[in-house]
Amino acid sequence: WSAVAPTSFTFSSEGTKTAYAWAKDAAGNVSTGRTASVTITLPDLTAPLVSAFTLPATSSSLTVPVSGLSASDARGVTGYLITESATPPAASAAGWSAVAPTSFTFSSEGTKTAYAWAKDAAGNVSTGRTASVTITLPDLTAPIVSIPSPISGAIVKGTITVTAGATDNIGVTRVELYVNGNLHASISSAPYSFSWNTAALANGAYNLIAKAYDAAGNIGQSTSVNVTVNNPVADVTPPTITFSSPTSKYVYGSSISISASAADNVAITKMELYVDGVLQLTTSASSINTRVSIAKGLHIILIKAYDAANNVNSSSKTVNRFF
Known about the structure:
- Helix content is about 0%, strand content about 55%.
- The protein is an all-beta fold and about 325 residues long.
- The strands form eight sheets. Strands 12, 14, 15, 17, 18 and 19 form a six-stranded mixed β-sheet that branches. The protein has a five-stranded mixed β-sheet with strand order 21-27-26-23-24, with no helix packed on it. A four-stranded mixed β-sheet has the order 4-10-9-7, with no helix packed on it.
- A hairpin with a 4-residue loop joins strand 26 and strand 27.
- The model has no long low-confidence stretch (mean pLDDT about 95).
């Protein structure tokens, strides 16, 4: 009781409330109560609590499933948000959802931490709850491979080095060289240099291609390099010799006329004339026209012809001088 009418009254809780006012006199008589009502709404200063937030340990996708995201609040949760930043989001920020999200998309692969947040109608934002995942995306990128040497259109001979270049977003495991579609050699580590012996091949056009592999089995292929093999052809053909004279094995007189010519698939470099094993004449021409003195009796006339590869051929005739 107060000797003066009170100017305020404190209720026990918020809500729609009814208060009763009473008065008394000196004799102790108490009035009938008079009522008045008020609806009390206290400010919401309590943030929600994120009680659970779970991600899988690993993922092969940037979009990761979310399980067990739940939050509670004294007056009710109105929004959920997942971020990669530990900085609390504003209640007015974009991306809030009225229901708990079932997945979250990360910006890149690797070991990642996500933060789950909840807010209420008063704009209170919870403390972030964390969960981590390791994301390893499938390798779908093939290596890039080229053949810088020899260049397309080159003329090659002997043993040459074919150089390939290969790069990959993760790593190259091997590089193969193909000649006319057939595997020539394989190298598992840089530098990718291949020895190619063209001398064992027929002269002509050849196609070179390099293939590069990575650990995921992706295959990169170079553009074709077309070269011409042009090795010197070994000359194994000896010259041919044609005797023009003497035409008979019987001769008369103290000397005889000797004529012969030689031909070769490349060129004649030397001819020699022997009589009875004794060298009579050497010439670089491809023919011999001369007279040689001989005594009575049997004589052997021998012609030898040589080419640049030192192939040699010989031809002989036996003659008999009577007088």
